[in-house]
Amino acid sequence: MINKENIAEYFKQLQDSICAQLEKGDGQGIFQEDQWTREGGGGGRSRVIMGEHIAKGGVNFSAVHGPMPEKISNALKIEAGSFFATGVSIVLHPDNPWVPIIHMNVRYFEMDNGLWWFGGGIDLTPHFIVKEEARFFHQQLKSVCDRHHPDFYPRFKKWADDYFFLKHRDETRGVGGIFFDRLNEKEGLTKEALFDFVKEVGEAFAPVYLALLEKNKDRAYTDSEKKWQLLRRGRYVEFNLVWDKGTKFGLDTNGRTESILMSMPPHADWVYNYQPAPDSKEAETLSLLKKNINWCS
Amino acid sequence: MINKENIAEYFKQLQDSICAQLEKGDGQGIFQEDQWTREGGGGGRSRVIMGEHIAKGGVNFSAVHGPMPEKISNALKIEAGSFFATGVSIVLHPDNPWVPIIHMNVRYFEMDNGLWWFGGGIDLTPHFIVKEEARFFHQQLKSVCDRHHPDFYPRFKKWADDYFFLKHRDETRGVGGIFFDRLNEKEGLTKEALFDFVKEVGEAFAPVYLALLEKNKDRAYTDSEKKWQLLRRGRYVEFNLVWDKGTKFGLDTNGRTESILMSMPPHADWVYNYQPAPDSKEAETLSLLKKNINWCS
Hints:
oxygen-dependent coproporphyrinogen oxidase; alpha+beta; homodimer; globular; two-stranded antiparallel ribbon
């Protein structure tokens, strides 16, 4: 029988496993760890890498508990009580503009009144969208989803399109992926079956990303491609600070700032009203930052 | 008798005057203008400079009107109706880390039911706080305020301390300045007298900033001082995207994104959990990013 302790223990091992795979993929960088404790209960292990190919990456594990702050129970629209939350959260900013930015999160939440759910997702933010790679990425996620429920991929793909969206730019953050939240017995699956799904999402992350890293990490790039990467990182900052619910919420409720903001890129640029040349690959990328593109057709 | 047309006309001239003074102070950069119109009514002139000493600066004028979107009347807690809003808004990011970032805004708002107010302020964000310069800056603002009302400086100085605050960092954005909003006849001053005050705030901006620019623009700096500047610019991004009400509101209500985000720095850096060396000038700056420092004693 699974319980919160063994879910947290699994996430801890997942963090270890992903860090080991990423270090191997980078070839040079080593994760530095900060252990922290939360005043209200629990804590975490924040790990950051500044490698050769992964310019700045964070792989965080946390397991926190205690009385639920009112601000949070109101926001989640649930009754007050004691909560437990654990998860792994990752953002990687690569050095090479041809390697995409990636984000992954898997999480579990429960209240002492018996309420529980899983959440998570993986989404990809290429600086330059390469259609073949976007298809590969989505196909991998679809395979994971399809092994658990035929509705998961279409539902969670749409959820990612809607969530990772910069309203003020009328752009998606990248090519999306999957996003899901509050998965519980109402899905018609047991807790064990949902946990199996979440595990498989977590375990798919490193191989999928390392395939993209390996393919592109040594690809030659121009100054102007690097500049475009820095502008796209600026958009990543805009999404995370303006629209990402988790980031805003964490910063507003005394989360550990440095762990929350490990998602920030090492370096980002803003140029007023930058417009890529018509028919350039930058313009093509912008044209593909749209919801509802079917990458698995 | 002043009315919305001549307030807008004055702000337009203020934009011209400030741009001319900043071009002269920079010595090389020339403002590029974009004129834009707003679907619901009105428009603006966005001007951006990428100069020798002012790395990236924006000086925006706008005068917009029309039926008030419900989202905005709710947020402002006022009755629905037709509105008119005009103002000048400025953010300058200097090249030299010893020159501070500065922000200025003056604005006027009215509803067709007769409600009206002025708002605005100036605040300074040094990368390295030089006490003598912070005192000079506050003394200039105090002189402007004191000519109009003995309470203005202490009230508006505290308002700036409270407003320009990064809760998630427990830091003020910089050394503050003055901030005020919804000033109307309840201040015990006529509309003319309040407009005179706002005019003087607007006109104080360029000479005060140019004094600081002139003093420091050619000061030698090290690579490590430049790096610190980029980290402080990261904090500026965090404030504007996470906490600044005007920015969030504009992005959420279909404002002109490029004009709103002209406040973004040209480049910014994030380093995980960066801690300056004890007793360094960086550490001293952090120790002064606090509310309620009296710079005019």
